[in-house]
Amino acid sequence: xxxxxxxxxxxxxxxxxxxxxxxxxxxxxxxxxxxxxxxxxxxxxxxxxxxxxxxxxxxxxxxxxxxxxxxxxxxxxxxxxxxxxxxxxxxxxxxxxxxxxxxxxxxxxxxxxxxxxxxxxxxxxxxxxxxxxxxxxxxxxxxxxxxxxxxxxxxxxxxxxxxxxxxxxxxxxxxxxxxxxxxxxxxxxxxx
Length: 192
Prior knowledge:
Strand order of the largest sheet: 1-2
Low-confidence stretches: 1-5, 7-18
Keywords: Copper, Copper transport, Ion transport, Membrane, Transmembrane, Transmembrane helix, Transport
Transmembrane segments: 49-70, 166-184
Shape: elongated
Strand content: 5-15%
Largest sheet: 2 strands, antiparallel
Helix content: 40-55%
Number of helices: 4
Structural class: mainly alpha
Family: Belongs to the copper transporter (Ctr) (TC 1.A.56) family. SLC31A subfamily.
Membrane topology: Multi-pass membrane protein
Distance between the termini: 38 Å
Protein name: Copper transport protein
Mean pLDDT: 80
């Protein structure tokens, strides 16, 4: 039985044998080349080759935007980290100074640093645990908004690929390639 007649390859099948009584429906997932494949809504169904090409170009641009957003987030994270590292701390009265805390720290080790023949006495302190950056009103809402936009674009691209339309799939891949070629060096290593 064909539930989606204009989408060749997306037939619904009730199965046979012992599974037919369970009511499970199996969808045949095969790539198809129908140019009248809806994207995101039935109202966005290309009616001719020009509209289909425009939809594919939209997907290329959306995938490029996705890569640009990942790069922008990575660059912004580096800026936020640099700003945190430059942050100055003030010692409060009655609290031990940094030099007093370092000298009494069991992880602190006196060493000699040599650079270009000049020796300098330094104290190396091992990090006791992971450094937790504090929540900041100037950073975290922007980070959350950027993450939300990145995930939204990613889901839109995923939905386009899930139409199983070859043109849409290739358009998403082309956009990822172009975007990564342009700004991939700025993206974080673990992001996709």
